[in-house]
Every structure is written in structure tokens, then in C-alpha cells.
């Protein structure tokens, strides 16, 4: 509060400013609009206006159609085999994927992280090999340290499977379709013929030592005397994520932890495979087991 | 006349002298001349008995001050079934080959195992039988297969036969190779120079002989029927 200095001393400014509320009006410099803002199609926050197409909300809405309703699972590719239909004698190649201690570790929410996702871990890692920050992350959610950690985007909070829930092979139904994602087999540094399917050069007719080379990379003066961005060239091949869509689940063995998929999937044997419901097929009609979905009471189904 | 320089020279040193003295003064000023009276530190508070002494070697594992709690892993299907592919194969072969005759026929430890170069006859559930030189054997569990090569009309024909396919009713050895082939895969037979041509004659002779044996005309026992366990000896050969 304003204290008066002693009369004999020099007049000093009060040590504490007087609250502005004590005065009726305080002049404030600046620009103030006289008219209230009108709602146009460019203003935000208007009632009944469509969501801006450049906003995160709109982006999520656009992606909602292809975002799975429930989380996927992690597996290890064990190898390929075949199934015979004993009646028709038809043979089908199949891939065996084993799921090991797949568990929900954490959630990502729209409010906190900007999107809904389920963080899923698989396997087990000795705690001495896990960094302290990550150990804390596992301890916070009451989950043992995991060998692999991935995220699966889900459409809304109904898809957030409870933390600590185990995801077994029974998560997928026999006959349903899944998308299998895995890192492809690394080819190392590969030439243009192998990497992009270039034709190469003829074996003869004067070609010397350049039978498998990529040839010309573009024009000279007419084309700007430069190599256009994105020009296909030799380089590292493979080792990136590849998705095989619409893979049918042929068999599920809960005890052995295996899912038998029709045909082949990317990656070498022993690689980590991400399995999730196929986005190009109707979502499987499986009642949701999440606590958020139980509140909704009805099974989660496609809402278009 | 003497110049003024010798007289002025001593005065010119003054500046340096003054600066030096000033610096000395500053140094003197920096020296600590005052020392507060030493107050004895208060005695340390009573330490807990578990507090490790810095002079004593601690016994056992020292726990970190803030240890993060870890949870035990759930039971693992991977540790219990480390080779699901083998189990899958075994389980599937039980359905495809209940007697185990096909597996035994192509087992490596079978002394009568068909080798590359032998002539094999495969009978299918629906359709004509196919015979040819076995030019390759691929042992891959459920996908175990043989590659047969024959000549039909004037064209060379090859067929991969999956031995566990339900469509295959029988696999018979028509004729053994006179000499063991030095290669496991006889792909050189695709070249006209090495092509052995049709196996029609050998198969006809074999079928004739088989008919005679089964009718008992030759006075030789049918090995498939006289075996101790005919079911196992058959290896898919039709009894008729």
C-alpha cells in the first residue's frame, strides 16, 4: 500500500504501485476496434460454421474413415508353410506369426497429444537394459519392460483398450482381414535395374562395361542442365516399412500364440510385424472390451 | 650545444615508475588482511545406523537411492513354444499323412529313398497318372515336393508334385537309377544333349510286372501285402 514518506525526506515514489482498480479509468494506449467482429467464413469460432479445412480437427475427421476402430497387435514372423484343404485338395501358402506378451502400455489422447492412439508393447526386456526414463514410463503404467513398443492409431476414445490389457491371437478372428506392416528385407546398395526395374543397356552393339547402368539422368541444356528432384537412381534398397493389405487370417491358436495368415507378408523371418484390421475391408464386428466403450453399451460399429 | 634529451630522459621514466607503484598498491590491496574468528562447527546430527560409513566397505549390493519399480513379465507363449512352425508342420502332417508312409518314403534315413535320377510314378485322385525322371527333391515340411520330367509327344514336360497333397493317392518307384547321380538336382537333363526322353516304356513294363505279381502268376509275394505292417509298407500304393 502507498505509504507516505516522512515530510523531511525527499519525496519518493510509493514502493508499491497502487492497484488500478482503485481508479475509475486508466488510459491505455493501443488500437481498439469500435465495431464488434462480424462472422464471416474467414473468422474462427463462429457458431454453426464449418470447421476450417486447415485445422487439426478437420484433418482428423478426414482420416477418421480409414482409422481403425480398435488397436492392432505386434507379432514376430516365424516362417512360411502351407495349408491343404483336405476335401478339395487346394493348397494355400501361409505365414505363421507369433505374438508374445503383447500388452497395452499407454494411451495417446486428443486432449493431451492431439490424436487417439494405443501404445502397445511386446516381448520382455531385462530392466537393466532399459533406460531410466523408459523404466519410469513402464512403472507408471504398471507394465513390465517391453522389447518392442509401437503405436496404433484409433478413431476415438472408445478404441483405447485399457492399459495393461493383454492382446492375444484371439484379438483377430478367423476369416477376418488384416494389414501386415513390417520392415522389408534390406538389399543394401542396389543398382537401378534391381531397385527400380530399369532395363539397362544392351549386351552388345558397342555397349562397353555399362550393361547394367542407369544411363542418362536427363537432358542437358533443354532440360535445365540439372537432375530433377526425385530422379530414380541407384541407392539403398529395402529395409523400409512395407504394408501388405487385406491378408486373411486363416487360423488362430491362443495357446501357442500364433496367427496364421494367408500368403506372404513383408520382412525376413524373425522380424517384427504390426497387424491391424484391414482398412479396405469392413471393420470386424467384435464387441469392444474397453471401459470407455462399455459406457456406450453397444458394440462399436462403423458409423458413416 | 648539448641537446635537451639527456635532461629529459629521467623524467620520461617517471610514468613507468608511477604505473608500477600503482600496480603494487593494487596487489597489496587485494591481499586478505582480515580473518573472521573461527567458530567451531556444530556436531553432526545423529545419523541413522543404516547410513553407510565412508570409511567402511559396504557389504552386499547397495540399493540405488531412488530405484524404479519394475513389474514381472506375464507368461510367455514364445518361451513355451519357441518353434511354432515345426509344431504347425507336425500337426498338419498328421491330417495329411496319418500313417506316416509318405514321410518315411522320403526320409533321408530310409535306405530305399527315391533319389534324383529314379523314375517315379505318381497317381492322382482325379486325372491321369504322371511318371517321369525325378530330377529334384525339395524337402520343406508340408511343402515337400518332387520334380518329375518326362517327354510327351516331342515336348519335354516337368511337374512339381507336392507329396503331401491330398490329390496324390500314390507314389511308386518304377525304376532305380543304374548309377547314383552325382548331382542332387539334375537340371542338366533339360538340355537336349542330356535329355533322357520319355519313360513310357519303363512304366509300361513296370505296370505289367506289377499286375503279374499281384495276380500271383510270377510266384513272387507282393511286398506290400506280405509285410508285417502292410499299412505302413504301402507308402500310398493302391492295393487294387
Automatic annotation (TrEMBL), chain A:
<dbReference type="GO" id="GO:0003735">
    <property type="term" value="F:structural constituent of ribosome"/>
</dbReference>
<feature type="region of interest" description="Disordered">
    <location>
        <begin position="198"/>
        <end position="240"/>
    </location>
</feature>
<keyword id="KW-0689">Ribosomal protein</keyword>
<dbReference type="Pfam" id="PF00297">
    <property type="entry name" value="Ribosomal_L3"/>
</dbReference>
<keyword id="KW-0687">Ribonucleoprotein</keyword>
<comment type="similarity">
    <text>Belongs to the universal ribosomal protein uL3 family.</text>
</comment>
<dbReference type="InterPro" id="IPR009000">
    <property type="entry name" value="Transl_B-barrel_sf"/>
</dbReference>
<dbReference type="GO" id="GO:0006412">
    <property type="term" value="P:translation"/>
</dbReference>
<dbReference type="InterPro" id="IPR000597">
    <property type="entry name" value="Ribosomal_uL3"/>
</dbReference>
<dbReference type="InterPro" id="IPR019927">
    <property type="entry name" value="Ribosomal_uL3_bac/org-type"/>
</dbReference>
<protein>
    <recommendedName>
        <fullName>Large ribosomal subunit protein uL3m</fullName>
    </recommendedName>
</protein>
<dbReference type="GO" id="GO:0005762">
    <property type="term" value="C:mitochondrial large ribosomal subunit"/>
</dbReference>
TrEMBL record, chain B:
<keyword id="KW-0689">Ribosomal protein</keyword>
<dbReference type="InterPro" id="IPR008991">
    <property type="entry name" value="Translation_prot_SH3-like_sf"/>
</dbReference>
<protein>
    <recommendedName>
        <fullName>Mitochondrial ribosomal protein</fullName>
    </recommendedName>
</protein>
<dbReference type="GO" id="GO:0006412">
    <property type="term" value="P:translation"/>
</dbReference>
<dbReference type="GO" id="GO:0003735">
    <property type="term" value="F:structural constituent of ribosome"/>
</dbReference>
<dbReference type="InterPro" id="IPR038657">
    <property type="entry name" value="Ribosomal_bL19_sf"/>
</dbReference>
<dbReference type="InterPro" id="IPR001857">
    <property type="entry name" value="Ribosomal_bL19"/>
</dbReference>
<comment type="similarity">
    <text>Belongs to the bacterial ribosomal protein bL19 family.</text>
</comment>
<keyword id="KW-0687">Ribonucleoprotein</keyword>
<dbReference type="Pfam" id="PF01245">
    <property type="entry name" value="Ribosomal_L19"/>
</dbReference>
<dbReference type="GO" id="GO:0005762">
    <property type="term" value="C:mitochondrial large ribosomal subunit"/>
</dbReference>
<feature type="region of interest" description="Disordered">
    <location>
        <begin position="218"/>
        <end position="240"/>
    </location>
</feature>
Amino acid at each position: 500500500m502507498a505509504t507516505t514518506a516522512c515530510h523531511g525526506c525527499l519525496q519518493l515514489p510509493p514502493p508499491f504501485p497502487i492497484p488500478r482498480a482503485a481508479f475509475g479509468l486508466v488510459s491505455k494506449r493501443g488500437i481498439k476496434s469500435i465495431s464488434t467482429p462480424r462472422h464471416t467464413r474467414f473468422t474462427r469460432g463462429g457458431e454453426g460454421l464449418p470447421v476450417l479445412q486447415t485445422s487439426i480437427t478437420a484433418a482428423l475427421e478426414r482420416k477418421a474413415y480409414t482409422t481403425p476402430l480398435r488397436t492392432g497387435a505386434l507379432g514376430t514372423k516365424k516362417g512360411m508353410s502351407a495349408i491343404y484343404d483336405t476335401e478339395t485338395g487346394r493348397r494355400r501358402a501361409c505365414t505363421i506369426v507369433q505374438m508374445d506378451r503383447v500388452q497395452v502400455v499407454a494411451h495417446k489422447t486428443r486432449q493431451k497429444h492431439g490424436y487417439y492412439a494405443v501404445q502397445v508393447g511386446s516381448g520382455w526386456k531385462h530392466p537393466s537394459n532399459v533406460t531410466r526414463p523408459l523404466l519410469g514410463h513402464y512403472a507408471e503404467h504398471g507394465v513390465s519392460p517391453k522389447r518392442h513398443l509401437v503405436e496404433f492409431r484409433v478413431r476415438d476414445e472408445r478404441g483405447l483398450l485399457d492399459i495393461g490389457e493383454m492382446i492375444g491371437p484371439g484379438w483377430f478372428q478367423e476369416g477376418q482381414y488384416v494389414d501386415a506392416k513390417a520392415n522389408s528385407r534390406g538389399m543394401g546398395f542396389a543398382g537401378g535395374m534391381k531397385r527400380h526395374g530399369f532395363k539397362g543397356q544392351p549386351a552388345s552393339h558397342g555397349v562397353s562395361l555399362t550393361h547394367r547402368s542407369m544411363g542418362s539422368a536427363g537432358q542437358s541444356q533443354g532440360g535445365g542442365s540439372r537432375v530433377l528432384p526425385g530422379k530414380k537412381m541407384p541407392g539403398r534398397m529395402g529395409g523400409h516399412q512395407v504394408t501388405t493389405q487385406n491378408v486373411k487370417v486363416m487360423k488362430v491358436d491362443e495357446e501357442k500364440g500364433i496367427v496364421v495368415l494367408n500368403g506372404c507378408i513383408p520382412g525376413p523371418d524373425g522380424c517384427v510385424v504390426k497387424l491391424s484390421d484391414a482398412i479396405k475391408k469392413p471393420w470386424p464386428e467384435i464387441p469392444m472390451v474397453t471401459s470407455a466403450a462399455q459406457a456406450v453399451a453397444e458394440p462399436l460399429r462403423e458409423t458413416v | 650545444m648539448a641537446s635537451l634529451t639527456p635532461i629529459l630522459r629521467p623524467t620520461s621514466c617517471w610514468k613507468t615508475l608511477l604505473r608500477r607503484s600503482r600496480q603494487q598498491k593494487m596487489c597489496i590491496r587485494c591481499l586478505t588482511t582480515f580473518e573472521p574468528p573461527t567458530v567451531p562447527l556444530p556436531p553432526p546430527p545423529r545419523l541413522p545406523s543404516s547410513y553407510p560409513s565412508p570409511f567402511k566397505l559396504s557389504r552386499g549390493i547397495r540399493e540405488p537411492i531412488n530405484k524404479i519399480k519394475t513389474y514381472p513379465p506375464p507368461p510367455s507363449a514364445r518361451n513355451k513354444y519357441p518353434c511354432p512352425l515345426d509344431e504347425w508342420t507336425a500337426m498338419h502332417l498328421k491330417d495329411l499323412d496319418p500313417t506316416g508312409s509318405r514321410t518315411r518314403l522320403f526320409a533321408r534315413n530310409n535306405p530305399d529313398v527315391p533319389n534324383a535320377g529314379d523314375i517315379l510314378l505318381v497317381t492322382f485322385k482325379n486325372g491321369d497318372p504322371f511318371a517321369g525322371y525325378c530330377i529334384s527333391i525339395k524337402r520343406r515340411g508340408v511343402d515337400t515336393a518332387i520334380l518329375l520330367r518326362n517327354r510327351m509327344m516331342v515336348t519335354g514336360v516337368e511337374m512339381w508334385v507336392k507329396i503331401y497333397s491330398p490329390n496324390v493317392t500314390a507314389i511308386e518307384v518304377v525304376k532305380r537309377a543304374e548309377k547314383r547321380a552325382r548331382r542332387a538336382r539334375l537340371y542338366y537333363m533339360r538340355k537336349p544333349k542330356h535329355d533322357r526322353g520319355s519313360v513310357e516304356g519303363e512304366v509300361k513294363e513296370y505296370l505289367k510286372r506289377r499286375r503279374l505279381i499281384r495276380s500271383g502268376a510270377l510266384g513272387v509275394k507282393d511286398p506290400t501285402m506280405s509285410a508285417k505292417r502292410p499299412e505302413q509298407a504301402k507308402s500310398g500304393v493302391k492295393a487294387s
